From TrEMBL:
<dbReference type="GO" id="GO:0005524">
    <property type="term" value="F:ATP binding"/>
</dbReference>
<keyword id="KW-0547">Nucleotide-binding</keyword>
<dbReference type="InterPro" id="IPR003439">
    <property type="entry name" value="ABC_transporter-like_ATP-bd"/>
</dbReference>
<feature type="domain" description="ABC transporter">
    <location>
        <begin position="2"/>
        <end position="227"/>
    </location>
</feature>
<keyword id="KW-0067">ATP-binding</keyword>
<dbReference type="InterPro" id="IPR027417">
    <property type="entry name" value="P-loop_NTPase"/>
</dbReference>
<comment type="similarity">
    <text>Belongs to the ABC transporter superfamily.</text>
</comment>
<dbReference type="GO" id="GO:0016887">
    <property type="term" value="F:ATP hydrolysis activity"/>
</dbReference>
<dbReference type="Pfam" id="PF00005">
    <property type="entry name" value="ABC_tran"/>
</dbReference>
<keyword id="KW-0813">Transport</keyword>
<dbReference type="InterPro" id="IPR003593">
    <property type="entry name" value="AAA+_ATPase"/>
</dbReference>
<protein>
    <submittedName>
        <fullName>ABC transporter ATP-binding protein</fullName>
    </submittedName>
</protein>
<dbReference type="InterPro" id="IPR017871">
    <property type="entry name" value="ABC_transporter-like_CS"/>
</dbReference>
Length: 295
C-alpha cells in the first residue's frame, strides 16, 4: 500500500533523507523511530506530496504521491506533527468542513470517536488546549474510515488515559486490516501496536525489523543474587560477560541471544540465591542500537 523507493529529499543545509527504501503492506502497522531531526517528518511530507523529492518515487495504493497528491490526501487519514487549524472556526465547524471537502455524508464514525476521546468540539479552536487540538486532529484523521493512515507523533499532548484510548483505536483499526505508518516517540505505544519498525538515523534507515525479532536479537538482561558476589563477579568477567553490581549487591548481566547457554553454564558453577530476567522495552533496545551505531 505504501511504497518508497530510493527516496532522497535534501535541504540546503545538507540534511534530509537519503536513498530510503521501504514498504508498508496492506493491513500492516509500521512504527517509524528516530530522534528529532532524523528525517521522520521529512519522509512523511514527501508521502503527503507536500515536498518534491530530489530523486526516487513514493506511492500510496499505486498512486504517485506527487502527481496524485490531491487525490491521495482526500482518501487517507493524516495527523501532522504540528497540527494547524483554521483558528477562527469552531471545532464542530472544522469537522463539518473536512467532511464536506471529502464528500463524507455518514458522520456516525465521527460521533463514535468524539465519544471515545471525550470531546465536545464547541468554541473557537484557537482557545483549545494542546490536548484538545490533538483530539480534533485524531478525529479528523479517522472519521472518514480511511484504509491508509499516516500519523506523525499522534499522541503528542494527550494525557495517559487518552494515550491508552489511542492505542485501543489503533488496535481496532489494525483488526480491520488498515495500513498504518506511525512516527512516534512513545516506545510503549509502538511496542503495543506495531508489527514492524523502521529506525532512521541522519536521514538513512539503519534498521528494519519486526518488533519481536528486534527484541530477540538484542541483549537479554539478568539480575542475580549469588551467595558469593565477588567470586561470581570474577567468574563471569573472566568468561567475557558484561557485569555490574547494583545498589542492593546484586549482579546485573546483559547477554546477547547466542551467549545465553554459555552464561547459564558459567552461572551453574556458583550458588545462586535469586535469579530474575529483566525484560527490555523497545526504548531500551532503541537506545542500545543508537549507542552501537555511534561507536
Amino acid at each position: 500500500m505504501i511504497d518508497v523507493k530510493q527516496l532522497t529529499l535534501k535541504y540546503p543545509s545538507g540534511k534530509g533523507v537519503f536513498d530510503l527504501d521501504f514498504s508498508v503492506k496492506k493491513g500492516e502497522v509500521m512504527g517509524y523511530l528516530g530522534p528529532n531531526g532524523a528525517g521522520k517528518t521529512t519522509t512523511i511530507r514527501a508521502l503527503m506530496g507536500f515536498m518534491q523529492p530530489n530523486s526516487g518515487v513514493c506511492t500510496i495504493g499505486g498512486l504517485d504521491c506527487i502527481k496524485n497528491a490531491t487525490e491521495i490526501q482526500k482518501i487517507l487519514g493524516y495527523i501532522p506533527g504540528e497540527i494547524a487549524f483554521l483558528n477562527d472556526m469552531n471545532g464542530d465547524e472544522f469537522l463539518k468542513f473536512m467532511n464536506e471537502m471529502r464528500g463524507t455524508k455518514d458522520t456516525s464514525r465521527q460521533k463514535e470517536l468524539m465519544e471515545m476521546f471525550e470531546i465536545e468540539p464547541k468554541g473557537k479552536i484557537k482557545k483549545y488546549s494542546k490536548g484538545m487540538k490533538q483530539k480534533i486532529g485524531i478525529i479528523t484523521a479517522f472519521m472518514h474510515n480511511p484504509d491508509v493512515l499516516i500519523l506523525d507523533e499522534p499522541t503528542s499532548g494527550l494525557d495517559p488515559l487518552m494515550q491508552n484510548r489511542f492505542v485501543e483505536l489503533i488496535l481496532n483499526e489494525k483488526a480491520k486490516g488498515k495500513t498504518i505508518l506511525m512516527s512516534s516517540h512513545m516506545f510503549e505505544e509502538v511496542e503495543k501496536t506495531c508489527d514492524n519498525v523502521l529506525i532512521i538515523k541522519d536521514g538513512r534507515i539503519v534498521k528494519q525489523s519486526d518488533v519481536q525479532t528486534l527484541k530477540n536479537a538484542q541483549r537479554k538482561g539478568f539480575s542475580i543474587k549469588p551467595a558469593d558476589v565477588s567470586t561470581t563477579l570474577s567468574l563471569l568477567k573472566n568468561r567475557g560477560f558484561e557485569v555490574s553490581i547494583t545498589a542492593d549487591n546484586a549482579l546485573e548481566v546483559f547477554v546477547t541471544g547466542e551467549n545465553v547457554d554459555s552464561f547459564i553454564k558459567t552461572l551453574a558453577q556458583s550458588t545462586v540465591l535469586s535469579f530474575d530476567v529483566k525484560y527490555q522495552s523497545l526504548e531500551d533496545i532503541f537506545m542500545q542500537f543508537y549507542s552501537k551505531e555511534d561507536k
